[in-house]
Structure formats: C-alpha cells, structure tokens
C-alpha cells in the first residue's frame, strides 16, 4: 500500500473512532438522564405537527414556536449537565475524513508530506537544500573549448530541473546526471527530492550501494513491503550509480525495477560518475539501452567544487 493509501485508511479509522466515542458518550448521558428520551419524543411530535401546520394557513407560526421552545429546553438541559454529545475531530474542517469541499484537506496534505519525508530515506540535513537559492558563483565562468562555461552549463541544467519539477507528473521522463565527483550532482538530486516532497509526491532516495543492499536483502528474506516502495514511489532517486557491488541478481532486479517504472510512467533520477563508456563496461546491454532510451542526460563538468571551495577558503 502506498503512503497515501495508508493515510486514507488511517483517516477513515480516525473519523470512525471519533464518531464511535461520541455515540458512547451519548449513550451514557441518555442512560443517566432518561428525561432526554421524553424530550426527544416531544420534539419529534412537535416537528410532525409543524410539518402539518405548514400546509395550513395561520397555524405554522405557533407550531414553529412550540418546536423551538422544546429544542431550547433540551439544549439548556444538556448545557446544565455539561453533556458532550458531538464527535471530537482533530480537524473540524474535514471531520477527519481528509476531504474538504475543495478536495484533499490541508491537514491530510500536511500529514502526507511528513509521511513521504519519513519514508524517503532523505537525510534531515538535505531538507535545507533548495533549488531556489542555488549558488552559481561556485562554478567557473570561463568557457571551455567547444562547450559552455561550467557556470552556464550549470544554469542550463538548473533551469531544466526547475521546469521538470514544475511540470512533474507521472508522464515525466527520467533524468541521468553524469559527471565527475564534486560537481554538485548530489546537491541537485537532494534539492529535486525536497521540491517533489514539498509538492506532496512520494520519493525514495538511495545511494546505489544501499539500493543494491536492499535488492540483495529482498532475495533472501521477505522485504516485499520495503521493496514495493521502490516500484511505487512517484520518484526514485539513486545516487552514485556504478559504485555498488554488482551481481547478476542485483543487475537483473535493477533492470526489472527500471522496466516496471518505465511501464508505469514513474520517473527516476540517477546520478553517476561514470561516462557512457564506463556505464557500458559496468552494466549489461539491457540497462544501457534503458538509460539511453528513457533518460534525459545532464552532463556536469568543471572543477571539483569541494577542492575549489577549500582553495578559496570558503
Ligand atoms: Zn482536515
């Protein structure tokens, strides 16, 4: 079950619990105050009389006054004994159903985002990383031979990523960040994860070794529940593809995972230090053909930002 489905079920149970508790309280109040049953009977009868009176001229007003007087008497009595008959919902707007007049209630959305964050595997520190305040000054502004400057290249990739997030849906293509270490691929991946989580999407973020460990672990013990998230999350982000230990089993399972996600139009974001040749050497033809056919390439180049920052004393 996806996080969203689990949360719908939790909300339904929460709503039912509040209604049930109110029914319990009501039963107790009626047990302790049998006069309420008599009051209810009188109100029902007065209601019937009012309905009949509405069809006859001149009688409706007095019948209405009688009904209202009885209702007030009952309300005053309930107030005098401090009776608490209404359900207590955590969210009064949606009565804990998760649905408001305009669709998903804000309370449901808030809990869904929090739940997606918890299951994303994303580091807490990464939650501060944002696509919005991206620092391009770290990148070299001098053009490379036949290429954009690293800074302009980064601006191009960043703009592609922002458009990607803005138009994200299940039709989105997948992304492949290619380039040496220290060029900001991981930063950008986590910022993408954060932006999608903020939209209420489910995201799984894993390093490639962690992904391989999970795939391998599922082979021997029942980790179906955890593994199903890899297939079902709106976005699967895998950092440092190529650094994981590879067995025929993990490569085969990774291929199945990619195939299923492609078929269900659920995108992936992979980053790797390998170039195309390295990818071809590391993986079999099946993975290479999927990476070529279904991923948008983003090529990162320039000087290692960490070394550069160190040299500049940042
Ligand atoms: Zn609500």
Give structural notes.
With 314 residues, the chain is of the alpha/beta class. It folds into two domains: 3-80, no CATH class; 121-311, P-loop containing nucleotide triphosphate hydrolases (Rossmann fold). Helices cover 57% and strands 10% of the residues. It contains twelve helices and seven strands. The chain has helices spanning 3-32, 35-54, 60-80, 106-120, 150-166, 185-198, 208-220, 224-232, 248-263, 276-282, 285-294, 305-311; strands spanning 99-100, 103-104, 174-178, 203-207, 235-241, 268-272, 295-299. A five-stranded parallel sheet has the order 4-5-6-3-7, with helices on both faces. The protein has a two-stranded antiparallel sheet with strand order 1-2. Helix 5 (150-166) packs parallel to helix 6 and helix 9 (248-263) packs parallel to helix 11. The radius of gyration is 30 Å and the shape is elongated. The protein starts with a helix and ends with a helix. The model has no long low-confidence stretch (mean pLDDT 89). Zinc ion (ZN) is lined by residues 91, 93-94, 105, 107-108. Zinc ion is lined by residues 91, 93-94, 105, 107-108.
């Amino acid at each position: 079950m996806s996080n969203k489905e689990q949360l719908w079920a939790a909300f339904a149970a929460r709503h039912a619990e509040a209604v049930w508790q109110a029914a319990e309280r009501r039963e107790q109040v009626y047990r302790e105050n049998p006069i309420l049953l008599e009051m209810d009977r009188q109100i029902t009868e007065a209601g019937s009389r009012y309905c009949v009176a509405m069809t006859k001229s001149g009688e409706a007003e007095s019948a209405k006054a009688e009904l209202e007087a009885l209702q007030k008497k009952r309300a005053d009595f309930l107030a005098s004994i401090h009776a608490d008959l209404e359900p207590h919902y955590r969210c009064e707007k949606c009565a804990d159903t998760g649905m408001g007049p305009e669709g998903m209630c804000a309370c449901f959305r808030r809990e869904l985002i929090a739940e997606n964050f918890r299951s994303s595997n994303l580091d807490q520190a990464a939650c501060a990383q944002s696509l919005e305040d991206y620092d391009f000054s770290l990148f070299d502004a001098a053009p490379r031979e036949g290429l954009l400057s690293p800074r302009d290249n980064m601006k191009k990739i960043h703009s592609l990523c922002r458009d990607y997030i803005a138009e994200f849906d299940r039709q989105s293509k997948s992304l492949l960040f290619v380039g040496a270490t220290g060029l900001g691929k991981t930063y950008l991946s986590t910022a993408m994860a954060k932006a999608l989580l903020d939209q209420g999407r489910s995201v799984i973020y894993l390093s490639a070794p962690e992904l391989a460990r999970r795939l391998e672990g599922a082979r021997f013990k029942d980790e179906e529940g955890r593994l199903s998230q890899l297939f079902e999350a709106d976005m699967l982000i895998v950092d440092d593809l190529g650094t994981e230990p590879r067995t025929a089993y993990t490569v085969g399972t990774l291929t199945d995972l990619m195939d299923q996600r492609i078929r269900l139009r659920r995108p992936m974001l992979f980053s790797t230090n390998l170039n195309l040749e390295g990818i071809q050497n590391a993986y079999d033809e099946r993975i290479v053909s999927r990476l070529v056919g279904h991923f948008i390439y983003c090529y990162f180049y320039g000087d290692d930002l960490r070394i550069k920052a160190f040299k500049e004393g940042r």
